[in-house]
């Protein structure tokens, strides 16, 4: 390998090392929190945010908060969904 090729190879290695160094600096400056703080935030979110998919915990969704329940012009809900009686269960068409 001649000197020009060796210089080119060394320049490429230096460029890669400098790029890696910049990425590591960015990673070092990223804001971090302790895992206990993250776990506490997750627990608080799960306890305070209603998830109606877990009805045994939060109870059934009240009709005024149900965006999928058809509403008439007066704001009252229709008695039928997709032509079926509203029994409180899902109807898949």
TrEMBL record:
Cellular location of this protein?
Membrane
What is any one of the record's Gene Ontology cellular component terms? heterotrimeric G-protein complex
A GO molecular function for this record? G-protein beta-subunit binding
Q: Name one Pfam family in it.
A: G-gamma
Domain named G protein gamma: which ranges?
Answer: 10-93
The cross-references to Gene3D superfamilies, in alphabetical order and at most eight, read: Transducin (heterotrimeric G protein), gamma chain
UniProt keyword Iron-sulfur, yes or no: no
SUPFAM superfamilies (UniProt xref): Transducin (heterotrimeric G protein), gamma chain
Coiled coil location:
none
Which UniProt keywords are present, listed alphabetically? Lipoprotein, Membrane, Methylation, Palmitate, Prenylation, Transducer
Q: Which GO terms describe its biological process?
A: G protein-coupled receptor signaling pathway; pheromone-dependent signal transduction involved in conjugation with cellular fusion
Name the membrane topology term: Peripheral membrane protein
Task: Please state which protein family the record places this protein in.
Answer: Belongs to the G protein gamma family.
Oligomeric and partner information: G proteins are composed of 3 units, alpha, beta and gamma.
Task: Provide the protein name.
Answer: Guanine nucleotide-binding protein subunit gamma
- UniProt source species: Nadsonia fulvescens var. elongata DSM 6958
